Structures are given as structure tokens and as C-alpha cells.
């Protein structure tokens, strides 16, 4: 996994590196989902900068309904232009801010191929911090009882 710390410019769409990124993103999603199922999301802190991330996210994206994220809208040319400056302001603040991370499109469901979107780590933090603070992730503890550190079966 040491290769993942090297600059991206050194690689030309190397499938083994892409597979390692996918594996790392999946591991992150599995851990995060298990935490959501077992802890109160409202008190969960994802980074030391949660307050700043949430404040700036809601200032810059006040209208974004984080319950269901539509990938085609999130990744449209217009939205990419809005997200880019948001993300870049965390370049020196949040470690690995640009890493590829899996986000649940529909907050009421678990991770699945159909319900996962690849986003940058800071986009994941912004949306998931909002979901936690706004009570959207609260239902997960009751809906999915995660036992033995395993993801529940897809619903």
C-alpha cells in the first residue's frame, strides 16, 4: 500500500494501483458504516476540523439535500466548478482531502454497487458531517444492527 502515497503523476492508469485505491475505499466505507450502526451519529467526529467543514459546506451549499445525492448532478460541469474551490480550501487543512472515497448516494441505505458514488474525501466529510449533524444518519442504528463488525446484507 506504500505505493498509494506516491504522486499520481507517476502512474499511467495502472490497474493494480486502481485496484488498491478501490480496496482502500471499500475498507474505509466498511469501517465508517459499522461506526454509524453502533454510535450516535450526532456526536461522531470524523476529523478535528468537523466544525469548519460543516460551517463552510452549509455556507457554500445551503440548498444541497444530503439525504439523496444524485451522482449525475454532483458530477455535472456546473457542480464540479462549485465543488473545486470548496475542496481546495482544505488542501492544507484536511489530510488526504482529495483521496477517492465511497459515499452512500441514499443515506437511508447501506453501501452497495448501486448506492455508492466515488467522491473526494473532503466531499465525503462535508456530506457525512451534514448527515450526522442534521439527524439524517440517526435511523441507521435502528435499521441496520451491525454485529461482529460485519456489514449488513444489502437491503
From TrEMBL:
<dbReference type="InterPro" id="IPR021148">
    <property type="entry name" value="Polysacc_synth_dom"/>
</dbReference>
<dbReference type="InterPro" id="IPR023139">
    <property type="entry name" value="PBDC1-like_dom_sf"/>
</dbReference>
<protein>
    <recommendedName>
        <fullName>Polysaccharide biosynthesis domain-containing protein</fullName>
    </recommendedName>
</protein>
<dbReference type="Pfam" id="PF04669">
    <property type="entry name" value="PBDC1"/>
</dbReference>
<feature type="domain" description="Polysaccharide biosynthesis">
    <location>
        <begin position="17"/>
        <end position="140"/>
    </location>
</feature>
<dbReference type="InterPro" id="IPR008476">
    <property type="entry name" value="PBDC1_metazoa/fungi"/>
</dbReference>
